[in-house]
Write a structure and sequence with these properties.
mainly beta, 46% strand
């Protein structure tokens, strides 16, 4: 997240209110547009841990484009 200039609060908002959520097997891809960012969508690849009620962030991406 530091390498890509993404704040923890930004990832939290991305997880809570994604514009796009796509299941990819056991992983999820969440993406969101942020008005204050000049790049494309911010995205995160997540692994859901339902038994613990949390999301594990595997990676975050900037300049993300949907296909």
């Amino acid at each position: 997240m530091i390498e890509r200039g993404i704040a923890v609060d930004t990832v939290g908002l991305l997880i809570e209110e994604p514009d796009v959520a796509v299941a990819q097997g056991p992983k999820w891809l969440f993406a969101k547009s942020f008005a204050e960012r000049q790049d494309n969508l911010v995205a995160a690849v997540l692994l859901e841990r339902k038994e613990k009620g949390l999301w594990v962030v595997l990676t975050v991406l900037v300049n993300f484009r949907l296909k």
